[in-house]
Amino acid sequence: MSAHCCQPPEPEQGKSLDGRYRKILWIALIINITMFVVEIVSGVKANSVSLLADSLDFLGDAANYGISLWVLGMAIAIRARASLIKALSMAAFGVWVLVSAVWHFVIGVMPSAETMGLIGVVALAANLSVAALLYAYREGDSNMRSVWLCTRNDALGNVAVILAAIGVFGTGAAWPDLLVAMIMASLALHSAWSVIMHARSELSG
């Protein structure tokens, strides 16, 4: 990253940056709320823990973008504290998915591979469009980085759901769905730790 990127922007440049970033966050917020509704309905019908995990991930990201819109332009300490809140929510999501995966394994639910695959492709297209919009802001402060990480994780999670659908269809078993859910949980926990460390360094700096 070039030197001028590490320095505070001039007032006019900062205002322009915030304006562009704010518009992108609003677009991302609308997309995530829409996909949350689509995925949670489809996940319940398909009995898929990976789809349900992805639906709550969309809901969490909607809250993530909403918080980011609220703190945009505020002092870095406030943005860092908001990042800590979002990181804790990412960690809670990861724990919830792990518990859900274990529960589905115990009760032996068989998911619908067709629904998983179709919704996975739609969700991937949605997240790739958001990731493309946010790519230029991936190396910002901890708040911007947490937004980028959430979006990146979503796209990777969608690919994993599609692969799980193929696995369920090919094996006739539920374990690919459960495996993907556990991988998504691990990714969420790792990203949460990364954001927490970044935010703490900003608060102590």
Automatic annotation (TrEMBL):
<dbReference type="InterPro" id="IPR050681">
    <property type="entry name" value="CDF/SLC30A"/>
</dbReference>
<keyword id="KW-0812">Transmembrane</keyword>
<keyword id="KW-0864">Zinc transport</keyword>
<dbReference type="GO" id="GO:0005385">
    <property type="term" value="F:zinc ion transmembrane transporter activity"/>
</dbReference>
<keyword id="KW-0472">Membrane</keyword>
<dbReference type="Pfam" id="PF01545">
    <property type="entry name" value="Cation_efflux"/>
</dbReference>
<dbReference type="InterPro" id="IPR027469">
    <property type="entry name" value="Cation_efflux_TMD_sf"/>
</dbReference>
<feature type="transmembrane region" description="Helical">
    <location>
        <begin position="181"/>
        <end position="199"/>
    </location>
</feature>
<keyword id="KW-0813">Transport</keyword>
<feature type="transmembrane region" description="Helical">
    <location>
        <begin position="116"/>
        <end position="135"/>
    </location>
</feature>
<feature type="transmembrane region" description="Helical">
    <location>
        <begin position="87"/>
        <end position="110"/>
    </location>
</feature>
<dbReference type="GO" id="GO:0005886">
    <property type="term" value="C:plasma membrane"/>
</dbReference>
<feature type="transmembrane region" description="Helical">
    <location>
        <begin position="62"/>
        <end position="80"/>
    </location>
</feature>
<keyword id="KW-0862">Zinc</keyword>
<keyword id="KW-1133">Transmembrane helix</keyword>
<keyword id="KW-0406">Ion transport</keyword>
<feature type="domain" description="Cation efflux protein transmembrane">
    <location>
        <begin position="25"/>
        <end position="203"/>
    </location>
</feature>
<dbReference type="InterPro" id="IPR058533">
    <property type="entry name" value="Cation_efflux_TM"/>
</dbReference>
<protein>
    <submittedName>
        <fullName>Cation efflux protein</fullName>
    </submittedName>
</protein>
<feature type="transmembrane region" description="Helical">
    <location>
        <begin position="155"/>
        <end position="175"/>
    </location>
</feature>
<feature type="transmembrane region" description="Helical">
    <location>
        <begin position="24"/>
        <end position="42"/>
    </location>
</feature>
